[in-house]
Amino acid sequence: MSKTVLVLGAGVGGLTTADTLRQLLPPEDRIILVDKGFDGTLGLSLLWVLRGWRRPDEVHVRATSASLPGVELVTATVDRIDISGQAVHTDHGVIGYDALVIALGASLNAAAVPGLTDALDAGVAGQFYTLDGAAELHAKVEALQHGRIAVLIAGVPFKCPAAPFEAAFLMAAQLGDRFADGTVRIDTFTPDPLPMPVAGPEVGEALVAMLKDRGIGFHPRKTISRVDSAETTLRFDDGTSEPFDLLAVVPPHVPSAAARSTGLGGVGWIPVDPHTLSATVDNAWAIGDAAVLPLANGKPLPKAAVFAEAQARVVAHGVAHHLGYDAPERLFTGEGACYVETGDGQAAKGAGNFLSSPAPSVRLYPPSREFHEEKVAQERAWLDRWNT
Description:
29% of the residues lie in helices and 27% in strands. The protein is built from 10 helices and 23 strands. The two termini are 32 Å apart. It comes from Mycobacterium haemophilum.
């Protein structure tokens, strides 16, 4: 009797899961991939759109039946996941499953910060976590002739912990002489004590040193309470305030409503086993931004595409084994790396093992052209693979 595996979300994790499953399962088993549009973008490409190194039309990821032969692609919005009934309710009907992989990512919720939506609507703020947002923010930076850019992390967790600081470097490079001579200043604000805190203080301090070396301000332990768009001012929980002329914000990230509907996680992020990515029920897994994976130091694994891709292959083998096939067991190792562009054709690289005990073992390697080229190759391989 044939079996059905349902994969929700066609980001890095979902695409890799579906592709690997098709290689592992017999042809009579159905693999169904559900996504609201099958039109995505890599996070690293968004930052290059912000910098002006990529056009929006160059970085779309559009998976089709040609790039995923043998996988059923269903364009639909997931409304509710019925774990006990083993069914997913969408705006195009109900789909039953024998095994479920949740790779629905994270959503942006600007409304969680009072005044932030107004600032975005008024044009005094922009964000770089969507393709349109990155392109619009590039134009805003280009038009700014003087003043201050505030790069604000409005809530944690968020996708790609290095991204806000990378954005600061890239905007400084875009500004050129306007930044070099102090006509436009850039300051970063985060609720954390250091950048990328999960990677440890050594990495965070090294990144702060890089920011200061470029003349970019770093302001830790700044939790936003309100954005005043009329006065172009940030107001923080500690009673302080900071003016800005342009706000580049990382909006609060929230789990999808569909992920929350599972009841598997208290706030909607789905807890998983660190090594197998299995949820608390034996026929469901969650990967990438949708999952919360606890580390030895008590912090969660960062939300990053490099982890989602590795987790997808682990989960595909786990699903095949669960369905009774002779698939070799794979475990998530926690190895990963991310790049921090410095805007001059170079990038730093943070790499190590995040599952190490008692804390992640991560090192930040200094900027080089080689690391930038590694990142370019990573983007090209992904675009070439899925845009067949």
